[in-house]
Amino acid sequence: MHWIEYVVIKVFYGLFSKISFRTAQFFADLLSLVLQHIVQYRRKVILENLKRVYGDNLPADQKILLRNIYRNFTYLWFEVLQAGKLNDKNFNNHFEIHNLDILEKAINEKKGVVLVSGHFGNFEWIACLFGINNWPFAGIAKKQKNKRVDDFIRKTREKNGADVIYTKSAIKDGLKFIKNGGVLGIVGDQDARHKGIFVNFLGIPSSTAVGTAIFHLRSGAPLIFIIAIRTRYAHFKIYIEEVPVSEVEGISDEAIQKVTQTYSDILSKWVLEYPEQWFWMHKRWKTSPPAAVKP
Length: 295
Known about the structure:
- The chain starts with a helix and ends in a 22-residue tail after the last helix.
- Helix 2 crosses helix 4.
- It is of the alpha/beta class.
- It is globular, with a radius of gyration of 19 Å.
- A seven-stranded mixed β-sheet has the order 1-9-8-2-5-3-4, sandwiched between helices. A two-stranded antiparallel ribbon has the order 6-7.
- It has a domain of 205 residues.
- The chain contains eleven helices and nine strands.
């Protein structure tokens, strides 16, 4: 079964990685319609999550919002397949970057950087920014059960400028990478089950991993938030901002809570502004908070 999965992914990559962006967009639009109307991929999860956050006051017509949520999802994966088409000659045609000086300054200080984002827009293409500029970058990822698939995904990410640090050894390897002046990228908005802490995300107590806070507090490296907002297929505005936690010191529970809540607030702001670009199909709230932190 693992071999079949690997072959399917390789064939899919071979077919779609070389075609034009316009042709890829056509297929991404087609797949989004299939997932929404025929497969109804995680439709129940999406609607439940929207209900949790907005109640009966959706920010847009439900049909339009659902269409755009599925489209964002399929656009992401087709863009990932086509990341190899980006180079130093066409990069600026696809990205409009705001506050790049914040990131450049942090990298030039050679103390390492903790970079946090969310499952929003195209978080995978953010790595291309580092590859184009030859900045050392690594992302934390979960190792796939299928070794062939895992090797393929890792090598593809490395071609696009991102080393991979696996979650199993994340703290040790991540801190070492930061200490050597690298930029460690973390997507910090998934349910962390009972290993996480509860912070308010989109107004809801949410189990959230503590890794981002620990990397920042233990290394002393600056904590920077980055997000890629899709303006159209394969075109983005990237926004960069410092996470205002410079006054937080030590590695106490209070410090970890403060750091995690602060960057979660920033991500919440962007999700509420561009709701169609967040991954509503994630089971973000599958872990219930203890009674002490319930609203």
